[in-house]
Amino acid sequence: MGGLMLLTRAQEAGLTVTVDAGRLVLRGPKTADALARTVLANKAAVLAALTPSQNSHNSQNGTDKRPDDPRPDLTDDHRLWVYLLRWAWLDDNLGALGALHGVRCCGAQLELQSNGALRIVAGSAYLGEWEADKSRHLAPHRTAITGWLRAIAESEQEADARTIAKGRTS
Question: In terms of CB atoms within 10 Å, which of 33, 34, 81, 133 comes out highest?
Answer without folding.
Answer: 81
